[in-house]
Write a structure and sequence with these properties.
Order of helices and strands: HHHHEHEEEHHHHHHHHHHHHH
Shape: globular
Structural class: mainly alpha
Strand order of the largest sheet: 1-2-4-3
Number of helices: 18
Radius of gyration: 23 Å
Helix content: 55-70%
Length: about 350
């Protein structure tokens, strides 16, 4: 028995007919996309690039230098792709390619029609059920329409390098690239949820994320210990560590793997996920009647809950200040100098030191 067969769920998967991407989209994904669209100059850049991006060239590149998944090539991936589209009720199955690259990765790109690309490193790393979650993840990107913004991000990232020598030219592009990366990191959380809806096997999703972080050494890794890393990352350190976390994540297109795993596990255990599995979810046929105000309210509520429940020192400080818990300058000074909790008697001691 292979590892993939050993972990395969012995059950049929539920299909979500007419499911809207709103069912699994992370509130932060929608908020970041709204913020991105409001960024000065983004509309102009988006409209210009939509007509200029060499999408035909992109398709020809993969057609000529990668392997197109079909019944004759990587047939097991083709079956997974069709299954994922069936489960999420995506009528048109996207083209899918396997490209030679030892680094495990997958992406969904394209303007008019999405293309899914997976690397040989990923195919060789994951077992069948882990790969099924990844394919569902990319189909979730396609259903949400993420491929358009992902394509623009890839183009602008390359353009930023080319115009770095132009005074101020790189600054304007990098502002949009930074906003796109912020949105894309949030969109990954949405797509992880879509992957779980397709695979319907939380342990397979967790294993896949662990392998992406630590390689093909499952016998050396443990899901519970991996999730504890996320808890330690989110709660550990002081305000200086909080700032370093922000700086570390800014250049990345994906959230940190342990954070993704923890986010997905929380959602898998939530009432929202259970309602979807029970057949109660937003439908695409109702999208036109969706209230933008309600979406904003949901996103705002999510951020308020995140700040209130976060263990991160910076988020806790923000929550305290928002709740009227005292002087900002003094609290920042105490947090950074470690003087917090010194009490009223610290004033005399401080006065005698330099």
């Amino acid at each position: 028995m292979t590892e993939g067969q050993e972990h395969a769920p012995s059950r049929r998967r539920r299909r979500f007919e007419d499911i809207s991407s709103r069912a699994y989209e992370h509130p932060a994904d929608r908020s970041a996309l709204v913020a991105l669209r409001k960024l000065s100059g983004f509309d102009t850049v988006f409209k210009a690039l939509s007509g200029l991006l060499p999408e035909r060239s992109l398709r020809l590149l993969f057609l000529s230098d990668s392997v197109r998944v079909s019944d004759d090539q990587f047939a097991h991936l083709h079956t997974m792709l069709r299954d994922a589209c069936y489960i999420l009720d995506l009528e048109k199955v996207p083209a899918m390619y396997v490209t030679q690259d030892p680094k495990p990765n997958a992406m969904c790109i394209g303007l008019d029609e999405p293309i899914i690309v997976v690397t040989t490193g990923l195919v060789e790393l994951l077992d069948e059920e882990e790969m099924r979650a990844v394919v569902g993840h990319e189909v979730g990107h396609a259903l949400s329409g993420h491929s358009v913004y992902r394509t623009i991000l890839l183009f602008l990232t390359g353009l930023a390098v080319k115009v770095a020598w132009i005074p101020l030219g790189n600054v304007a592009i990098m502002a949009i690239v930074t906003a796109l990366r912020e949105w894309f990191r949030k969109s990954e959380l949405s797509a992880d949820r879509a992957g779980l809806l397709v695979g319907q096997d939380l342990q397979a999703s967790m294993r896949g994320l662990m392998k992406i972080a630590g390689g093909n050494h499952l016998h050396e890794m443990n899901v519970d210990a991996f999730l504890k890393q996320a808890e330690e990352y989110e709660a550990g350190g002081d305000l200086r560590d909080s700032v370093l976390k922000i700086l570390n994540v800014l250049p990345r297109s994906h959230p940190f793997t342990t954070v993704r795993a923890a986010e997905l596990k929380r959602w898998a255990e939530s009432r929202d996920h259970q309602r979807i599995m029970d057949g109660h979810y937003p439908r695409r046929s109702e999208d036109k009647d969706t209230s933008v105000t309600d979406s904003f309210r949901e996103s705002a509520s999510h951020y308020a809950d995140s700040v209130r429940t976060s263990k991160d020192p910076l988020m806790k400080l923000v929550g305290d200040i928002a709740g009227g818990a005292g002087d900002l300058g003094g609290r920042l000074r105490d947090k950074f100098t470690g003087a917090a909790g010194a009490g009223g008697g610290s004033g005399g001691a401080t006065g005698g030191e330099r």
